Amino acid sequence: MSTCATPIDVSALRRAGGSALGADARQAATKAAATAAAQATAPQRWSVAAIEALFELPFMDLLHQAQQVHRQHFDPNAVQLSTLLSIKTGGCAEDCGYCPQSAHFDTGVEASKLLPLDEVLQAASAAKAQGASRFCMGAAWRSPKMRDLQRVTEMVQGVRALGLETCMTLGMLEAEQAQQLKDAGLDYYNHNLDSAPDFYGQIISTRTYQDRLDTLEHVRSAGIKVCSGGIVGMGETRAQRAGLLAQLANLEPYPESVPINNLVPMPGTPLADAEPIDPFEFVRTIAAARITMPRALVRLSAGREQMDDALQALCFAAGANSIFYGDRLLTTANPQAARDRALFARLGLRAQGAAPEAPQPAPDQVAG
Ligand code: SAM
Ligand code: DTB
Ligand code: SF4
Fold first, then answer.
1. Domains of the chain in sequence order
2. What angle do CA 257, 132, 343 make, to 5 degrees?
3. Is residue 96 annotated as part of the catalytic site, yes or no?
4. CA of 271 to the centre of ligand 3 (A)
5. Residue 275: which of 288, 285, 289, 262 has the closest Cα?
6. Buried b / exposed e across 143-157, counting CB within 10 Å, b at 16+?
7. 163-184 pLDDT, tens per residue?
8. What is the number of the ligand closest to the CA of 170?
9. Could you tell me which of 44, 55, 49, 5 has the C-alpha nearest to residue 290?
10. Catalytic-residue membership of 92
């Protein structure tokens, strides 16, 4: 890992606060020692204002800082690949305003039953053969029922036996349910905070922010690694994007994996006509996530299909080091695996922790 770049003072930034951050403070922040956050023994809290101050930095300064933090903790040319499968689609009782799977909205997504084990294992084998290191299974549930949990634990065991890391996202969990998943060998549980507390109520009414925090606590206490992030581009303000990151970064410990989703506006949902976020603001969000959660895998998640290669490259430069890999997310399209392999080859990126037999990008797959 290279640490050649000019150091920064992350603590100074935290102290600096929001709009008060002027050119001098910015300069100070880019000149002082880089490893403050990484070396801190006690976790420090991030104020929303300090994270807003990161967003307000000149774009190049912010990217530079994010790269420095990234390089202290990760190989900057390695990207972790997770493949997603919807094991139970549609008909969800929740009213998340972005989601095509909610039964509250007429989106054309048909409700289906939980997939059989053999179909799940087939998809997992295919994901492994393509080079994924983690297999994430998602269900459109408010929370899993007892009988569902029995069946999903078999999926965890089967996918693990294939040599893949496992992740599930099944909605809210009670403490005992989290323990059952841990006992089955589940590595990660995804449950997003989705947005800042002061914006959340405009998007979802059927579960509270505290419900989400409680689930994360149950997952953490059971010893499962936490995957939690959110969505941007839902009409939130910059302060609210900072507010989401503050919530995540101040979890003790912060999540091992942080998906940053760019809203995929789905016809029929209340957010179908949401104003798209400025692409550079999206990159800023990735950079701020990297700086505030230095050791987390920051996942460039939903929305890649709508991004060009240059924007994705900026996201990687800003510290994203994980993607969903494979042609589908849950109900929407994701870039074809071949397109991702070509992008990786053009950028000199490689898959982190891929199975040895995973196909490496051939020179002729490199797009012009
Ligand atoms: N039902 C479970 C839950 O809500 O926790 C798991 C599945 S849910 C679809 C997982 C996450 O996908 C959501 O928390 C949200 O962040 C993301 N998501 C859903 N629809 C999206 C969309 N249209 N655009 C971007 N992200 C989306
Ligand atoms: C996450 O944060 N993003 C993924 C995963 N966790 C489960 C889901 C994205 C869903 C995008 C809309 C869809 O495909 O339905
Ligand atoms: Fe249901 Fe999850 Fe979609 Fe919300 S995000 S409607 S809980 S599937």
1. 10-41 (no CATH), 48-351 (3.20.20.70)
2. 90
3. yes
4. 14
5. 262
6. bbeeebbebbbebbe
7. 999 999 999 999 999 999 999 9
8. 1
9. 55
10. yes
